[in-house]
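Annual report, structural modelling task.

Input specification for the thiamine diphosphate complex:
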Amino acid sequence: MNKYTVKDYKSSAKPIWCPGCGDYGVLNSLYKAFEQLQIPPHKAAVISGIGCSGRLSGYMNTYGFNGVHGRVLPVATGVKMANLENTVIAVGGDGDGFSIGGGHIMHAARKNIDITYIVMDNGIYGLTKGQASPTTPLGIPTKTTYYGNVGTTFNPIRTLIAYKASFVARIFSANIKHSVDIIAQAIEHKGFSFINALSPCVTFRGKDQYDYFRNKSMIIPDDYDPTDEVKAFDYANNEDTLELGIIYKQNRPTYDEVLDTVRIKAKKEGVPSKLGLLHDFEV
Ligand SMILES: Cc1ncc(C[n+]2csc(CCOP(=O)(O)OP(=O)(O)O)c2C)c(N)n1
Ligand code: SF4
Ligand SMILES: [Mg+2]
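The model returned the following structure:
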């Protein structure tokens, strides 16, 4: 029998997202993934940025931090590095992650920080009432693009593969069973796991956004090999279809593992003393 159940991961705060918001599906999938992995609530931290999506950390009965707009990854990196035993989840929106916070993703990815980053992608700034975001499709009217969005749409999957994220996946918030499976695999992956969660904003993109995602998405076949980078780019480049599942995966040392080897080497060679540092590194 499971020691922890979904209710152990729920905080006392009730979600206040609009009825029908896709973020409910992401939250429920996260609860269930935690249950599946039996993660002790006191051994986890959920860090969020600012946006409707950023509210998610407050609904988790784990450690948490609702930080500054666009700065979820530096905070999550610090939390992970302070205690490597903790499961650290970073969450936020497409505006938070790809606009103001866009400069942080490449560094968390290339360093292979051992955290899971879920972007709730609704292609709009929800909290601030409907401005265009980097993932708003071309031609869509928004509060800031009255005559239709101009500029091409940012492709997170292609970018994250190029950034060398070691786990790149896409989920659809309405498909809970599939999302639970992918989130659980992302958490178990050693390294930086990126999940683009298609999560409709019924208020500023309309209920049709569910149909748009449903009609455009397709679950990746079981025989697909996510370690094949060329095929992963093929999937990412085909913007007519939104593949759901693990699109790219690579096993390589995490930031903390590499740092450990540096510490051991430096200590062995007496580098801290040679540099006149007062204390040797703790290994
Ligand atoms: C430094 C800073 N700039 C701007 C804002 C205003 N702001 C708050 S949330 C947000 C965008 C929210 O969009 P997204 O990240 O996509 O999240 P969503 O609400 O759609 O989940 C903006 C621009 C802010 N809070 N702080
Ligand atoms: S405004 Fe959009 S993203 Fe925000 S809670 Fe409502 S439906 Fe969700
Ligand atoms: Mg958004």
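The chain has a mean pLDDT of 95.
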